[in-house]
## 1
Amino acid sequence: GASSIIAFTMPEYKYKAYNIVASHSDSPSFKIKENPQMPGDNHYVSLNVEKYGGMIMSTWLDRPLSIAGRAIAADGRNIMEYLVNADKDLVVIPNLAIHMNREANNGTAYNPQKDMLPLFAAENTDRTLLEMIAEQIGADRSDILSHDLFLYNRMPGTIWGVDQEFVSSARLDDLQCAFSSM
């Protein structure tokens, strides 16, 4: 709920037909699971994620990523929904070094539950992701009931080519659908 937009105009004159245009703006991503923090084997904290939508997983490796979505929290009397955007380079899904995986250039199959876990913090941190989200929305950690959080690519879009004839950007395929509908 609360994540769809439906807009229409009604003509002032009598009409016999109508057109419907539909698009979506959600993009393939990694969704953060309910209990997100996982202690790592090598002194770090990873986040537990799952795939959302059809994606090319390798394009998520070694990039600055952030977290955005919704958090549901109780303020004592009401249950409120908050938009969340960490808006900073917060996590990275690291690629394994070539000397650790000599087959990396021969077609690697990624297991999202093992190979695609974003690094969040050093193991000695005293902050959790949900505490950080609570701080952003002005709530206590214990007030957060649920969340709908996703990773997103922080790299800015760019225009490139010898004659500036190309554009590259994250989420471009889904956003162009919404743009053309408008």
## 2
Amino acid sequence: MVKIERTPTAPKSLALESQKVNGSYREADVIDQLKKDFHDKCYICELNKLTDIQVEHLLPHHNRTIKERVFDWNNLFYSCPHCNSMKKEPRYDEKILDCCQVDPELLINHIWLDNDVVVEAIGDCPDEKALMTAELIQNCFGKDNTGIRKVQCAARYDRLAETMNNLYRTLGEFKKDKTSPKYFRALRAMLKREYKFAAFTRYYVRSHLADYPELKDFVS
């Protein structure tokens, strides 16, 4: 999970749809703006180029009983169905970080270690939302309590592994020749928040800045 800069102006359809009995918060202008703002990535697992999306409410509206949350632009997030279903567990209600308001990378470490995913809150006494958010992200890569979830988690694990291996290869080439603009440009792209699984790529480089001081500005 990375910091997202949300467009401050709400899509026009939200105000119109909120006046209807069964108005929709998923009109085309909402989807288009969320897709753009969230870089076509699920805000939780950071899988990109989603073909199946959901508009997720950070704060639950409990079957529209809290109507002001249903059409609140600041409460709508771009999610994949897999992560949305995980977050719907009551234990996460109102306990997930708002990545449009805070920088999750300051509160959570996203670690790819020995071909395993380790997501952990930072500090000896971490914020409760950081703890719960870290748990949720961890589960989105490894909670296989049902057959469907097992397949969905494995797909995200495989994509993350591919991304990290590509990062390692590019870093290796860059270390051999740090004057090469090719690898410098490639790494700059991989370390942008827009990149798939950016929280993991950025954490790795931040943890190895002694080897790659030239990349410091890309992960700050």
## 3
Amino acid sequence: MLELPHVLTHIKEKRGEAFVFTTMGSAREWSKGEIQERDFMYIPSSMGQLPALALGFALAQPSQRVIAVNGDGCMLMNLGALVTISANAPKNLVLCVVNNGEYEVTGHQPTVAHSSRRVSGDISFSEIAKGAGWASTTTVYSVEDLDACDEILFHAAGPHFIELMVKPMTGDVSPRSPGPAAARAHALRELVLSVDLGYPG
């Protein structure tokens, strides 16, 4: 299994000019390193909203690659977004789901998709995405698998769905806001307005 910090470092080092949206545990870990102006750490009052946010941005900025790093608990709270995204089919969007089998930031409670909570059968987010109409879905278990995903993660036309199997974090895993959300959203808007990002119209 992967380590979340390794996954995020991999994305940071190879993302190029892509916009990266993170939430909850991923946002907490992402904010520990150097932050770029194309990063948006999203800590909402309710979980599950990141895929819709990333979709809206990807549709508004079709020339820009958008990588969204969501949690498995968050994904469970908005599975309908998978159908909405596949229906719109934004070629510039990559949705990654970090699957550690638990609601990490609220106290490590197992999700209903965790093996300890299942009566039978395996729960696969990548298979759910495939059933929701995504043409490109994959599950990543190892560093080697992650390296092999570089083309679809950073270059190939999407949308792509990538399920990342990671170990739960230990220690202080409470979410940390990187600053006032309104100010950060305003700064992102100003960046989009001030730079030629290929806005349609």
## 4
Amino acid sequence: MADSIRISFLGGLGEIGRNCMAIEQGTGDDRAIVLIDCGLMFPDPDMHGIDLVLPDFTYLREHAPSIVGLVATHGHEDHVGGIQFLLRDTSGIGDRITDPLPIYGAELTLGLARNRIEEAGLISRCDMRPVSDGDVVEIGPFRIEFIPVTHSVPHAHAIAVHTGQGTILHSGDWKLDLTPVDGRRTDLGRLGQLTAGDGVRLLLADSTNAEEPGYAPSETNVGGVLRALFAEHAGRRIITASFASHLHRIQQIADAAVASGRKVATLGLSMKKNVRLGRELRVIDIPESALIDIEDLDDYAPGEICVISTGSQGEPMSALSLLARGENRFVKLSEHDTVILSSHAIPGNESAVNRVIDGLLKRGAQVVHSGVVDVHATGHAQADEIKTYLSLIGPEWFVPIHGEIRHKVSHARLAELMGIARTNGVVCVDGAVLELGDGGVVQ
């Protein structure tokens, strides 16, 4: 009989954000824990005085010496933004974790995580170990495989954890984009191969868009919309806002700008860093001749400029929020400006985003957002894609993750529709612990 596997959900099951789980085998001195992701979450409006919400590190504090590594599915803040807090935890977890902590992920994923870890002065506590698509690595007793998936940040992965109790598949954040910007599609072939033999014992799958019917639109659709907007607003200065990690969107914004004869300037430290990282890794291609420094905007006519800014979620101190309040030291808005919010508000951020839009309008700018024009495409699979995925994988056991309760319940209903027994679908919340043993999953 193989050792049972325990899965502890430390965040991400009941909210959009702070995704973190621990997969564990053994006890006592033989205990080995591998973490999948360690993200953060923006606070709800009623969380006064709170800047960020983190996973619950209590269990990790108790068993810090048993942590053998961390696997990052992709580079979004809700999946890697909490790593530096794990490393510097005030209760001493950072001192007792395997030092340096091995962190595995795509080179871009690690680069995006590194920015925050370096800012915290904790890079010496990390052993960054880049992986490529299809790589299989041994982390303690676990054999972990990195399977390409398409998402709104390049080089995202699903994670297959091969254990003595069978394969545990973590879907990562994903969609079935058949025409992605970089041509890198979700590897349905490899996912299908996992079903051979004993198949997938347990599937942990993204629930974000389980309530949304149909299929998520392709990211390349946004490029055509952006080009049309740039043509429509010729002669005006265009300021765009997007996630700094959404390098495919940044690429399409830059392509539209260059095609319309504009120079590109970045606004916001994280945007500047991520564009530089993306160009260094050849994930994005923006000609050097098209890039200018934000301080040189006044050297160009409004119709010759495109600014790519951070702050699409209305974060109070972000570049776009400062712009909306007239407090940005680099850019002052006027009636000659068009602001394009090429994003969609994360649940809970709607009020903050609306305040920013109001501020931009008060300063005379025209504002284009996803509520009026299709300037955004989700990075998460919708219901019909999810049904395809469930049909392909056909897991013995299923746990919906990454979402609020309503998203997970909707996902569980889709799973039942696709033939997964209701008794084998487990809807969990933060803090839940599952044990996968010879008899199946026990909560």
